[in-house]
Design goal:
The complex is a heterodimer of chains A (about 500) and B (about 160). Chain A is α+β, with helices and mostly antiparallel strands. The radius of gyration of chain A is 31 Å and the shape is extended. Chain B is built from four helices and six strands. Chain B is elongated. Chain B starts with 11 loop residues before the first helix and ends with a helix. Classes of the chains: A alpha+beta (about 500), B alpha+beta (about 160). Chains A and B meet through β4, β18, β19, β20 and α14 of A and β3, β4 and α4 of B.
């Protein structure tokens, strides 16, 4: 290949790695081989089949290990590490030193026997795209790690803020020591908790009951399938209801609905108390520390530099009373709790105070909001409603004409909700932040600092191309952010502005 | 920066797309022939429409898809446009590139082509690919991006 450039000489992983891989493969395949042999232990299968099958498997595994060794190579260049793999389909990956956050060396029992380690180059790219080299000698692993550290020190030495990261990359979610000064940012007392719970109406319990019923159906089935059982119940109740008349039936329905509401209300309250009891958000040296929960108390640390964007959500009713919730979008590689709720039920003033710590801007009176393109919502409403109206027309001329009202009603609902969406969706750009707000009855606002975005895409389906609107997708670490249905020229303008902002700050220089 | 001019991919990309289409439709063609033999219908009742469809996929579509693709490498960013039905126009600033791949699968190698893939930390568009580059060009583009990152030009 012609890409020697300054890539250094092509190196191979240690050949003993073949043995490690093969041993691992045989070990993993042992169960399969045993099953195979056991399955073949029949009169009509000749003995040699039983003995050759494992041999073939072992040969295949060893051959596979040889190939996977042969197809992997790496170069240590002046600016990057390169990993090349593939015999037929070739892949060559270049990882600039500047992007390697850490080099981790791991060994298994097997690899230790041979004095080998697996090297993993950690970039910020999230789990599955990390690059590994299996296996090299422990000395080579240490050399690679040193090489990366030296190169990084050299690169970040000139200009740019020094990046102090723990050598082991453990700046993640270790709870801070007790000696650290922590200052309460947000807390929920019991009164707030109960108010919050009242809004968390949930019919989850019925889903659980239904699932449980399915699980234990076999216990009930003798009763259910027994004719006499039903006759007895219906006989008694039916006669009773018939005797009492319509008034009682209505009362029963109201009572049933009331019970449903009560159950939903109580479920919501109990779930909320279990989850958010004594909710406490503190500001520590590294970032935020959140503790919550009644039975299981969770303790999560969210480093400030991992906060990518803020999301302020609310509910249809609680919004009218001024209650909102705040959560952060955090890096996907964060292994801690997936939920980054930092204030589940708070006033706007409280939320603004928390967001201010992260340095993310929130929209204010000066913010100039832009509305999406009406045509996008018109099209969506038409796509939803027209088929329903056609069905209604079909029904209207059929014997079932009274039912024609149902699709008309649904079509009306769809059109109405699209109209409301068009009224509610909006976006804005200020000096450093991109805002997007979506939602029908409970608007959700996303505020993303523009330097935290990684790519910008303009996506258009065939309809969008015809009509001249587009969807803007932003690359945000650990979350999604998009602005749907804006005019193409506007999308281009937003993209240009955002890009100029992102391109000005290198990833490695992002505040950490 | 002129936003709207795009560089076309190497014309061999049409051939790559065509070969891929052929490989993809082989099972369909076999099935159609089988059905033709099995079904008691006049000759060509199944095979004719299927053949027309396959001809479209092999003869017409690759060129159309090719025309819709393009890329542009400017001083500090990479723009990639692709998609015949759903059009996607993506820009990745070099400053956000995590690592870079130059891949060449067997069919691409046959025509001397490669695919450049840049990876970012974003969840959406975590990797953005530019297919249909001459292998040397792909390597040169990689060097450009890598040099940009190493120099830390943006910051």
């Amino acid at each position: 290949m012609s890409d020697r450039a300054d890539g250094g000489a092509l190196m191979r992983t240690h050949p003993y790695g073949i043995a490690v891989r093969a041993a691992k493969g045989v070990w993993q395949g042992a169960l399969g081989i045993a099953a195979l042999a056991f399955g073949a232990l029949r009169e009509d299968v000749p003995d040699w089949v039983i003995w050759t099958a494992p041999v073939i498997v072992v040969i295949a595994v060893v051959g596979g290990a040889c190939i996977s060794w042969r197809q992997l190579g790496y170069r240590v260049g002046t600016d990057d590490i390169r990993v090349e793999r593939g015999l037929i389909n070739k892949e060559a990956r270049s990882i600039p030193y500047d992007r390697i956050q850490d080099v981790s060396l791991s060994e298994t029992l097997l690899s230790r026997l041979f004095g080998l380690v697996e090297v993993q180059f950690e970039t910020g790219a999230g789990g599955k795209e990390e690059v590994t080299l299996a296996y090299v000698t422990a000395a080579e692993g240490a050399r690679l790690r040193e090489q990366v550290r030296d190169a990084r020190a050299r690169v970040s030495g000139d200009g740019g803020p020094a990046r102090d990261r723990g050598g082991d990359g453990t700046d993640g979610a270790s709870p801070p020591t007790a000696t650290e000064s922590a200052q309460t940012v947000f807390a929920m007392d019991n009164r707030r908790l109960v108010t919050f719970g009242a809004f968390e109406f949930s019919l989850l319990v019925f889903a659980v009951l239904a699932a449980g019923f399915q699980q234990f159906e076999f216990l009930l089935s003798p009763l259910i399938w027994d004719d006499g059982f039903w006759k007895e119940i219906i006989g008694q109740q039916g006669e009773y209801v018939a005797a009492a008349g319509v008034a009682l039936a209505i009362a029963g329905a109201v009572l049933g609905l009331g019970a449903l509401l009560l159950v939903g209300f109580v479920t919501g309250l109990v779930r909320t108390i279990l989850r958010d009891y004594r909710f406490l958000l503190e500001r520590t040296e590294k970032g935020f520390r959140r503790r919550r929960g009644l039975l299981t108390r969770s303790d999560v640390v969210m480093p400030l530099h991992r906060v990518q964007a803020a999301i302020i959500g609310t509910g249809a009713i609680r919004r009218l009373l001024g209650w909102h919730g705040l959560s952060f979008v955090s890096l996907a590689s964060d292994k801690s709790d997936a939920s980054h709720v930092v204030a589940p039920f708070a006033t706007m003033a409280e939320i603004a105070r928390i967001v201010a710590i992260t340095g993310i801007d929130l929209p204010d009176a000066e913010t100039r909001w832009h509305r999406p393109d009406a045509r996008y919502f018109t099209d969506a409403a038409l796509i939803g409603a027209v088929p329903l109206l056609l069905i209604a027309a079909g029904l209207a001329v059929s014997p079932y004409w009274p039912f024609a009202a149902i699709p008309v009603l649904v079509a009306g609902l769809i059109a109405g909700s699209r109209w409301l969406q068009w009224r509610r969706h909006r976006h804005a750009l200020d000096d450093a932040t991109l805002f997007g707000q979506v939602g029908l009855l409970s608007p959700e606002l996303t505020a993303a600092p523009r330097i935290r975005l990684h790519s910008v895409e303009i996506a258009q389906g065939p309809l969008a191309r015809m009509r001249g609107y587009a969807r803007l997708n932003f690359g945000l670490a650990g979350g999604k952010f998009a602005i749907a249905g804006i005019r193409l020229d506007e999308a281009r303008a937003v993209r240009a502005r955002v890009l100029n902002h992102i391109a000005a700050v290198d990833f490695a220089r992002l505040p950490r | 920066m002129d936003e709207d001019t795009l560089d076309p991919l190497h014309p061999n990309m049409i051939k790559v797309l065509r070969v891929r289409a052929i490989l993809m439709i082989v099972p369909l063609a076999v099935a159609a022939i089988g059905a033709e033999i099995a079904a008691p219908l006049p000759t060509g009742a199944i095979i004719a429409p299927v053949a027309l469809l396959l001809l479209g996929l092999v003869a017409v579509m690759p060129r159309r898809r090719y025309r819709r693709m393009g890329y542009r490498l400017t001083r500090d960013r990479l723009r990639v446009v692709r998609g015949w039905w759903n059009r996607r126009d993506t820009v990745v600033p070099f400053g956000r590139v995590q690592h870079i791949d130059v891949n060449a699968e067997a069919i691409e190698r046959l025509f001397g082509l490669a695919t450049l893939v840049v990876h970012t930390a974003g969840t959406h568009n975590a990797s953005v690919a530019v297919p249909g580059l001459r292998h040397d060009d792909a390597l040169a583009m990689r060097e450009t991006i890598r040099a940009f990152i190493a120099d830390g030009e943006a910051g």
